[in-house]
Amino acid sequence: MLTGELSPGYDATLVWPALAGYFRMEPEKLSGQLLARAPVTIKESEDLAKLQNLQAGIHAIGAEAELHPAGEGAFFALVDNRPRGPVPRAFIAERVRLGYWPGDVPIAPVGSSTWTAFSATQPAYAVPFPAAAEPAYGAAAAAAAEAPAAFATAPVAAVAPGDLLPGGLAIHAGFWRRTAAYVMDGFLLAVVGWVVALVLGIGMLGALAGGSLDGALGAMMLQWVSGIVLAWLYFALQESSAAQATLGKRAMGLKVTDDYGRRIGFGRATGRFFGKILSGLILYIGFMLAGWTDRRQGLHDMICGTLVVFRAVEPGQPLPTTRPPMPWYGWVINILTVLLLCLSVFGLIAGIGMLGAQLGNY
Q1: Poorest-confidence range of 97-106, 153-162, 217-226?
Q2: Which of 105, 125, 159 finishes a domain?
């Protein structure tokens, strides 16, 4: 049961967005579907340990949750002219016993639009509590009447986690982590590609020595194609494997998933690889999008419906709420990469300047 209350000392502006991420929901959906109806049942199960783990996770974020037996059905309660729930009858009885709710709080079984005072269905609570004023049934009552019907088939359907993985820094890998992983993968591919190029280069030199220009051109073309095929298979096979990640991504604690956090297939991994061509067309802006989009997606991720997330993210499991720190070697790789890029740019500018100076002397 999510009570809709905060644990002492916690800030609502921090807790509710974190809880939305934990439930894999958008914050607006959490507010509209859960908090607006809290207290509300968020999980029914016969596995007590699973429920206790869920409760502990909610408490760790800073929200209050309670466990109650699900016997005697699920009900909505009309509190402050707003429908709350669904909740078990035992929860309503507990709230009435503690004096949080009046004894004649209107309740309705899930699937019914008939509201009855709780004291009328539970006579033991009719005397100890003073009668409450008649609820102002207008628009609020109309909305309340619709609420049980909406849950007629599945009392907890509206509180089930959203299918799409939500945004969140503890879920999605940002630009610099992905850059470090990509540089590592690029280095490994360069080493293997160098070996392949060496073998094919020897063949090309042999063809030239034998006077076969066609053979040399064929070897050159094969060298170019083999580089593309090698990179394609390296990324596509690993990102669609059980590991869901290349060696570089594994070193950074990352993996590739679809929009729902699931493993992708070889076809989608192939599309993601060749989609990087589009990401790099305009000054690599497609790659830079991974630094500021909500779910840290590059252009190729948006096209193929993929995400790069932290290893702890698993389908059907509570989402992590703490962002892992960047490994030290990730920082080293990124710093060296930026320095090399700066040196390359300065070298290019210096070369252009020297060329201009030489041309000016003629």
Answers
A1: 153-162
A2: 159
Answer yes or no: do 180 and 274 share one domain: yes
Q: Same domain for 19 and 152?
A: yes
- Paired tokens of 261: 């956090």
- Residue 300 and residue 267 in one domain: yes
Query: pLDDT tens for residues 59-76?
Result: 888 888 888 776 677 888
> What does each C-alpha distance from 16 to 23, 36, 183, 310 come to in angstroms?
10, 12, 37, 21
Contact between 163 and 38 under an 8 Å Cβ cutoff? The reply is no
The gap from C-alpha 256 to its chain's centroid, in whole angstroms, comes to 11
* Residue entry with tokens 């009719």: 126
Same domain? 110 vs 133: yes
pTM: 0.56
Render pLDDT for 219-243 as a digit per residue (tens, 0 to 9). 678 888 888 999 999 999 999 999 9
223 is in which domain, residue-wise?
175-323
Tell me if 162 sits within 8 A of 171, measured CB to CB: no
Q: How many domains does the chain have?
A: 3
Angle at 243 between CA 272 and CA 232, to 5 degrees: 35
Whether residue 254 is found in the same domain as residue 187:
yes
Determine the distance from the C-alpha atom of residue 310 to the mean position of all C-alpha atoms in its chain, rounded to a whole number: 9
Mean pLDDT of 98-127: 76
DSSP string, 41-97: -----S-HHHHHHHHHHHHHHTEEE-----TT-EEEEEETTEEEEEEEHHHHHHHHH
Q: How far apart (Å, rounded) are the C-alpha atoms in residues 218 and 204?
A: 8
Question: Per-residue pLDDT for 323 more than 50?
Answer: yes
Q: What gap in Å lies between CA 111 and CA 109, rounded to an integer? A: 6
Q: Count how many residues are written for the chain.
A: 362
Residues 6+ apart with CB under 8 A from 138: none
Q: Are 2 and 63 in contact (CB under 8 A)?
A: yes
- Per the domain annotation, does 351 fall within a domain? yes
